[in-house]
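Chapter review: from sequence to fold.
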Amino acid sequence: MDDFNILENKDVKRSLYRKIIMSHAYFLQAHLNREPQNIPTINILEIFRDYIVEKGETYIDLEFDEGNSCTIYLDTDEPNNSGFMVSRPCSGRLWECLYEVMLLGNFVFFEPGGLSMIIVNPEVERHLPTNMIESLGKPVVVQNRESFLKLK
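The token string follows.
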């Protein structure tokens, strides 16, 4: 019997595309001197530790409470990461965790179609790649946790 290749099925491909590519997403990237900044993966995972319901090589599934879950894509087996994507972001505690992550390095937060990039320290801007600022615009500085949490 031939093996069934699920990705040859056009309906499955379309469904996966809509779920992954077309779903809402947030991106966080860390930069140092206009280059990717390596942040210890263990430090990122520790922030989400209480909410991880599944962990794979390239993702963690999070559940904060019933109806508030999402997936974060990052290389969990690598010692360092310079960024990650949050797929299908939810509300509540996720935002508190994202703020904590942003304090680990020179992180910038952005979303496709979002109004502006967001940073939590004005010094982060000088570390961002020039082409990123040209493409996405000057970042907005959110001075404290409360201001960041109001963005949700």
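Two observations follow directly from the output. Confidence is low (pLDDT under 50) at residues 1-6, 12-22. Residues 10-20 form the longest helix (11 residues).
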